[in-house]
């Protein structure tokens, strides 16, 4: 644990411990935890929890951020998308996402419930996991397209739509007791590619789903 001489690092560490506790409670008890449950799991009291988080929404935001970070780490980190074809690159990313959701299905359900909670209830997290994933996706896509001088106007809409498909399909997957992750990945990969391909075609970019992205970029640069 960070020393008391570094109060900001200590505060960050304590907040992370509460997020760890929230994940354990969600994983073990379901998507409707109480703040008392989380504080108890962390080995402390609710007043101490609230000294670290402004309100429920602040804690929920931290849970959403952790979930988004796990998705990014497993789906995107240390993977060079340029060397792969769009179809297999998407499959890699969606498989990583599915692995995180399969590991923490109740965390996803919890965040989905929080997103749909009435405004002012204190339950809706300022950070929506879908928004975070979409923003990161938009950044990567924008960088790639700008490298070959493709107009990126509307890419944020396309990426948000693609992530919306992903999240909506996740609800369906988790609601179907017999659904397998592989089936989810197969279906969602095709659907997300359909959204992105439609956007690219509108920009007059014909991207072969089975051709390495760097090959396509080289071809576009030469045109």
Short structural description:
The protein is 70% helix and 0% strand.
Walk me through what this model shows:
By secondary structure, this protein is an all-alpha fold. It folds into two domains: 53 residues, Arc Repressor Mutant, subunit A (Orthogonal Bundle), CATH 1.10.10; 153 residues, no CATH class. It is built from ten helices and no strands. Helix 5 packs across helix 9 and helix 7 packs across helix 8. The longest helix has 23 residues. It starts with 6 loop residues before the first helix and ends with a helix. About 3% of the residues have low confidence.
Protein traits:
single chain; 223 residues; Arc Repressor Mutant, subunit A; 2 domains
Question: What is the CA-atom radius of gyration, in angstroms?
Answer: 20 Å
- Per DSSP, the total helix count is 10
Annotation, overall tally of beta strands? 0
Following the backbone from N to C, one meets helices and strands in this order, namely HHHHHHHHHH
**What fraction strand?**
under 5%
Which descriptor suits the 3D outline?
elongated
| Helix share, percent | over 70%
Broad structural category: mainly alpha
Low-confidence stretches: 121-127
What value does the average pLDDT take?
86
State the separation between the terminal residues, measured CA to CA. Answer: 56 Å
Number of domains: 2
Described by strand count, sense and barrel closure, the largest sheet is: none
